[in-house]
């Protein structure tokens, strides 16, 4: 097979990109174009499918095959594309409202099947395109246009939702963390089966302060923990804090920088249990975890599907008449 | 088949056609014997039409009235167009089956009853205070009370099977009796038993023995004074199989994909009475058929739209409530101008309604039921085997015009069956798709000047990378456009494209005189009943003609002219006048309606009565 070398530029579209100035979508777009280029497939083998929402304008800005479908249905449309032609690299771009509210059912069934979709969910905790209503990830008590007295719905934690569904690849990034996100998307691109990537992102007009503290150079090292397979769960500006597990409960311990105690847990991305505990960390008790929470192996839906076809023995070249005759046809002369 | 000499000469009566109804508990294997009997009549060269009629409960309480399952069929010469109005023979496997069906059979008809099932408890469950087989209430019928349980048990007394296993075979005893009475071949069922029970040879042997015993019993006993030969139909030579409407639709989709040389994609969610399409296609995964049992109706159609974008012949199937759930995505199909076949098997509605019963009440939903100006093509099938032709035509139009197409069938057609002649490749229509220009000249919304279809450049095709979606498009380039004038242009183009499908519609056939007093005009599943009624009416000297519409949107271009040649128009339909409303809107005519909303098909008697009422004023 020819060695295909594409760059992010090959995926850049000529259309004017219409997001608000300062929106994290610009950064994610760049990172995604890079991740695609790294997949090594011919240009025409990429498909970006989206639903409705700000993030869902993505397909227009990626110069491949793209389908800007309807609200919540991106995973369903994308599943049809992928199963029809498993050679295609199918990316789904969605948001917290699109992917977890109106499209929640399709999201969870895509993950259940482990169909080979790369799902990137932009979590800005708001319905932005309809101008500021509470979304399924809006924090409890937050005042929005549809919740003037504060939300009374408990929010979803998207990454933990995916972990809970035994998704074979789950990660979380922060839009402005270029290096971190690039690494996550690169791994998602290579994953077989469903890859679910949550990207934390603020919405300039409606949730302008969201996640700001996670990006503050002074505070972020104490508020964010980067999980990495095989590495101890350590964080803090001085790398002096770690996570231990006592009776399945996480605790933070402090120690002298440079001497990580043995009881600090070493992250294991193959462990569903650890992924569940860590992805559940909430502020202010715990640092917000980012990185690859879960990476496991399971046959993909399309693999199992076409294995079955191979097992029956392909008969697609049979005469139409044979195909239509079935076992109980009779002849009238 | 060997005919053993009978004890005494038996009178053979020759009949044009006959209607038989098997009825019993839903656990009695009624549908199974019905299908076997239907196959035997087909193999014997009869025309036939079947109507399975079963309760919506998976297993209603045994012996209850709600649990009665029925299978009716009519077979005979070419005059057989429907499963018949009233059975000439009723097979009642228990008292509940008798009580449910007796009101629909004429005096003088034959009732074959399993007398062993008429126990005091079963009689009470069915609401009888005394045994109708003994108390004389059936004296106006020809009753054959046969102890089927006892006879089955004595046949299998040495089989080593349990009593429960033995009694499960009793339906084959009855089938054996029926094969003898109607001089039908027993071998196809024997072969079927051998295949079906391959893994349990003891059950294969038992069912075979019981079937043969039923046949032999009829031959040996003097209970029957007559045997019937039913006239055969002069059929076109060829290879045949018996297909239900759902199977026919499934095979049409496979055939369409073969003619198009693309994979078939069928995304679907289980729903009565459309599920058999999914199940039939699921057996054909190795024939380039991709089936996808989606998480819901919306995902079913959305996955199909994705498949169309990836170049498959995309299709989905459902029934009324499911079609409602698919409405938004159907709009996406319309604006993204992707080919998509939606088979909608209509059932009694609204909501869950009568999920196993038939109706024609989704016509307006199919033609108009979407947000925005959202035209698409709607076709309707006329008979179980015609579900093949209609679905194949739907697929041909979908890809030629790059549009969603809804094919309307209903529970009457989907569950009913008739012989289907397997077509030769050369007899099938050609599939054309809009030409795909060179990549440099490719515009996602460039149009074929004749059909207005846009090119079908699918994901994975080198040099045609492009973006589509639900937002309004600029004509030609396909880029997103909010321009007011462009929206009107695009709305008109989409409407005009669907209107041009009229060029595909053959001239409307009028059965009978081309002008006169009354034209009965129908659509979809009422074809058999209307044709039979009009034939009957003409025999009695009434001047009446009929026409049947397959293309519901757009309507046949000559339909107005055809209708204006008659003084009166009668539109029989299984709804409250949906097609009549469309005809009034399109042609400013005032047709008369004959409307039935009982979950049962309109029958020829009802149509005939209405014709007489109109023409004779009675």
Quick recap of the structure?
The complex is a heterodimer of chains A (333) and B (618). With 333 residues, chain A is of the alpha/beta class.
Please write out the topology.
The complex is a heterodimer of chains A (333) and B (618).
Chain A: H1 25-37, E1 46-50, E2 65-68, H2 74-84, E3 89-95, H3 96-102, H4 104-113, E4 117-123, H5 158-164, E5 169-174, H6 178-190, E6 195-200, H7 212-215, H8 220-223, E7 224-227, E8 234-235, E9 241-246, E10 249-254, H9 272-279, E11 288-295, H10 301-312, H11 320-325, E12 330-332
Chain B: E1 11-15, E2 17-25, H1 30-43, E3 47-53, E4 68-76, E5 89-92, H2 95-101, E6 110-114, H3 120-125, E7 142-146, H4 148-155, H5 163-167, H6 170-181, H7 187-196, H8 201-220, E8 226-230, E9 238-244, H9 245-260, E10 264-268, H10 275-282, E11 289-293, H11 297-309, E12 313-318, H12 320-325, H13 327-336, E13 340-346, H14 363-368, E14 377-380, H15 386-401, E15 404-410, H16 411-415, E16 417-421, E17 467-469, H17 484-499, E18 510-511, E19 516-523, H18 527-539, E20 544-549, E21 551-553, H19 559-564, E22 566-573, H20 578-587, E23 592-595, H21 604-616
Parallel strand pairs in B: 1-8, 2-5, 5-6, 6-7, 10-11, 10-12, 12-13, 13-15, 14-15, 19-20, 19-22, 22-23
Antiparallel strand pairs in B: 2-4, 3-4, 9-16, 14-21, 18-20
Tags for this entry?
heterodimer, A: 333 residues, alpha/beta, Rossmann fold, 8-stranded mixed beta sheet, 3-stranded antiparallel beta sheet, 11 helices, 29% helix, 19% strand, globular, B: 618 residues, Pyruvate-ferredoxin Oxidoreductase, domain 3, 7-stranded mixed beta sheet, 6-stranded mixed beta sheet, 21 helices, 36% helix, disordered N terminus
């Amino acid at each position: 097979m020819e060695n295909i070398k594409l760059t992010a530029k090959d995926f850049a579209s000529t259309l004017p990109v219409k997001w608000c100035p300062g929106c994290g979508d610009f950064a994610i777009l760049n990172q995604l174009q890079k991740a695609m280029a790294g997949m090594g497939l011919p240009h025409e083998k990429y498909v970006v499918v989206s639903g409705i929402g700000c993030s869902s304008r993505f397909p227009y800005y990626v110069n491949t095959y793209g389908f800007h479908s309807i609200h919540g249905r991106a995973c369903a449309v994308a599943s049809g594309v992928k199963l029809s032609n498993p050679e295609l690299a199918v990316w789904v771009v969605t948001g917290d409202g699109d992917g977890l509210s109106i499209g929640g059912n399709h999201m969870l069934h895509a993950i259940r099947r482990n169909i080979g979709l790369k799902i990137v969910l932009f979590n800005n905790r708001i319905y932005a395109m309809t101008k500021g209503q509470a979304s399924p990830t809006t924090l409890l008590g937050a005042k929005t246009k549809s919740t003037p007295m504060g939300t009374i719905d408990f929010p979803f934690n998207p990454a933990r939702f995916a972990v809970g569904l035994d998704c074979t690849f789950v990660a979380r990034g922060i839009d402005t963390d270029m290096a971190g996100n690039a690494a996550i998307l690169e791994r998602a691109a290579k994953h077989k089966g469903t890859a679910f990537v949550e990207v934390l992102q603020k919405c300039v007009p409606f949730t302008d302060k969201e996640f700001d503290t996670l990006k503050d150079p002074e505070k972020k090292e104490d508020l964010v923990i980067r999980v990495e397979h095989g590495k101890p769960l350590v964080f803090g500006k001085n790398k002096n804090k770690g996570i231990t597990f006592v009776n399945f409960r996480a605790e933070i311990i402090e120690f002298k920088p440079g001497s990580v105690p043995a009881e600090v847990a070493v992250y294991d991305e193959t462990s569903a249990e650890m992924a569940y505990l860590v992805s559940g960390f909430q502020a202010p008790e715990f640092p917000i975890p980012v990185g690859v929470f879960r990476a496991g192996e399971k046959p993909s839906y399309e693999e199992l599907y076409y294995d079955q076809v191979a097992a029956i023995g392909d008969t697609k070249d049979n005469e139409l008449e044979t195909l239509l005759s079935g076992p109980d046809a009779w002849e009238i002369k | 088949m060997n005919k053993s000499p009978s004890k005494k000469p038996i009178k053979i009566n020759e009949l044009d056609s006959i209607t038989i109804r098997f009825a019993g508990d839903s656990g009695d294997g009624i549908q199974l014997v019905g299908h076997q009997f239907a196959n035997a009549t087909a193999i014997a060269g009869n025309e036939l039409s079947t109507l399975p009629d079963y309760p919506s409960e998976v297993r209603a309480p045994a012996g209850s009235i709600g649990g009665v399952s029925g299978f009716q069929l009519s077979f005979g010469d070419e005059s057989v167009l429907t499963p018949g109005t009233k059975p000439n023979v009723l097979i009642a496997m228990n008292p509940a089956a008798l009580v449910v069906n007796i009101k629909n059979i004429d005096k003088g008809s034959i009732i074959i009853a399993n007398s062993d099932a008429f126990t005091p408890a079963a009689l009470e469950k069915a609401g009888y205070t005394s045994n109708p087989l003994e108390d004389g209430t059936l004296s106006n019928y020809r009753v054959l009370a046969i102890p089927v349980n006892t006879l089955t048990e004595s046949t299998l007394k040495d089989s080593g099977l349990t009593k429960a296993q033995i009694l499960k075979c009793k339906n084959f005893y009855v089938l054996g009796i029926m094969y003898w009475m109607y001089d039908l071949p027993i071998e196809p069922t024997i072969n079927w038993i051998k295949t079906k029970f391959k893994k349990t040879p003891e059950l294969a042997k038992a069912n075979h023995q019981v079937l043969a015993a039923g046949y032999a019993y009829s031959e040996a006993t003097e209970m029957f004074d007559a045997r019937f030969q039913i006239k055969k139909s002069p059929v076109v030579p060829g290879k045949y199989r018996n297909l239900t409407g759902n199977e026919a639709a499934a095979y049409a989709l496979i055939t369409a994909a073969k003619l198009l040389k693309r994979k078939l994609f069928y995304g679907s969610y289980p729903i009565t009475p459309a599920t058999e399409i999914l199940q039939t296609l699921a057996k054909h995964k190795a024939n380039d058929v991709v089936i996808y049992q989606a998480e819901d109706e919306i995902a079913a159609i959305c996955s199909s739209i994705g498949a169309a974008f990836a170049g498959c012949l995309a299709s989905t199937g459902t029934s009324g409530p499911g079609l409602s759930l698919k409405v938004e995505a159907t709009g996406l199909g319309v604006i993204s101008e992707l080919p998509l076949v939606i088979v909608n098997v209509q059932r009694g509605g609204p909501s869950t309604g009568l999920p196993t019963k038939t109706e024609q009440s989704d016509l307006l939903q199919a033609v108009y039921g979407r947000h925005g100006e959202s035209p698409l093509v709607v076709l309707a099938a006329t008979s179980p085997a015609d579900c093949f032709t209609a679905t194949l035509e739907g697929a041909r139009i979908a890809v030629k015009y790059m549009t969603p197409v809804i094919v309307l069938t209903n529970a009457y057609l989907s569950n009913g069956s008739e012989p289907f002649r397997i077509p030769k490749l050369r007899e099938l229509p050609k599939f054309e798709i809009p030409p795909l220009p060179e990549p440099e000249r490719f515009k996602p919304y460039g149009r074929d000047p004749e059909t207005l279809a846009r090119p079908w450049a699918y994901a994975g095709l080198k040099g045609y990378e492009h973006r589509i979606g639900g937002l309004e498009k600029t004509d030609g380039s396909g880029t997103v456009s909010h321009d007011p004038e462009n929206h009107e242009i695009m709305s008109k183009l989409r409407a005009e494209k669907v209107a041009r499908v009229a060029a595909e519609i053959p001239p409307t056939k009028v059965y009978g005189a081309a002008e006169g007093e009354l034209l009965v005009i129908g659509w979809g599943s009422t074809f058999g009943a209307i044709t039979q009624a009009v034939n009957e009416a003409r025999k009695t000297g009434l001047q009446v003609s009929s026409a049947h519409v397959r293309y519901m949107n757009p309507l046949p271009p000559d339909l107005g002219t055809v209708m204006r040649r008659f003084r009166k128009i009668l539109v029989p339909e299984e709804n409250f006048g949906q097609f009549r409303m469309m005809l009034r809107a399109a042609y400013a005519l005032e047709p008369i309606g004959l409307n039935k909303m009982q979950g049962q098909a309109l029958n020829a008697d009802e149509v005939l009565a209405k014709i007489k009422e109109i023409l004779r004023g009675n």
